[in-house]
Design a protein that fits this description.
mainly alpha, 11 helices, 224 residues, single chain, Double Stranded RNA Binding Domain, elongated, Ribonuclease iii, N-terminal Endonuclease Domain, Chain A, 2 domains, 62% helix
């Protein structure tokens, strides 16, 4: 197992190779050989990930509310995002697994992949400091963060608008796509929101969902 390949994949070379090995050492493997597993590193990495992703969101998306920032962070530090990072860098090729996990194809289990990424974050922090850990996190998750910020208000604005309009009884709320432009890889959409056939507002976005959210937001502002 040539761990230098993994180091090249993640863009960081360890001074202490034992830390790297520990980050990849699943409990099943550690128990068979009376070694320390990556569980403690995982615990530390989880906290580092939460802190540094919060810092990035705070510094780069100042227009979000505290609640929206919390939602974005929750989306980004979830298992799905971390599994994607592990798969991107082929962590499954380098994990130390016990015999039972090997037989069960544990190297592809989402939970094991997620834990290994958190452990890797802690290992990078202990070996190279907070700056290196931050570099790894942001390089691998900034696109996930950007995507999460696009739709963070979708449910909120549309739900709030619906609740406000239905205070005095049932109403019919419709979102109509009235225009789109641009090439397939960079389209823009314009959506109108109507209540009982009456125009309230329109919004523009890079997706229909984003345009709907902005239309709902503008409608709320107009009503207020």
């Amino acid at each position: 197992m040539d761990l230098s390949v993994l180091e090249k994949n993640i863009g960081y070379t360890f001074k202490d190779k034992e830390l790297l090995k520990k980050a990849l050492r699943h409990t099943s493997y550690a128990n068979e050989r009376n070694l320390e597993s990556n569980e403690k590193l995982e615990f530390l990495g989880d906290s580092i990930l939460e802190f540094l992703s919060s810092k990035y969101i705070y510094n780069n998306y100042k227009y979000l509310t505290e609640g929206e920032m919390t939602k974005v962070r929750a989306t980004v530090v979830c298992g799905r995002s971390l599994s994607k990072v592990a798969k991107l860098h082929n962590f499954s090729d380098f994990l130390y697994l016990g015999k039972s996990e090997q037989k069960a194809n544990g190297e592809n289990r989402p939970a094991i992949l997620e834990d290994s990424v958190e452990a890797m974050i802690a290992a990078i922090y202990l070996d190279g400091g907070l700056e290196e850990a931050e570099k790894f996190i942001i390089e691998n998750l900034k696109e996930e963060i950007r995507e999460a910020t696009k739709h963070v208000g979708d449910k909120d604005y549309k739900t709030v608008l619906q609740e406000k309009l239905q205070e005095n009884g049932d109403v019919k709320i419709e979102y109509k796509t009235i225009g789109e432009s641009g090439p397939d890889h960079d389209k823009s959409f314009i959506v109108e929101v109507e209540v009982n056939g009456k125009f309230l507002a329109k919004g523009k976005g890079k997706s229909k969902k984003e345009a709907q959210m902005r239309a709902a937001k503008l409608a709320l502002e107009n009503l207020n």
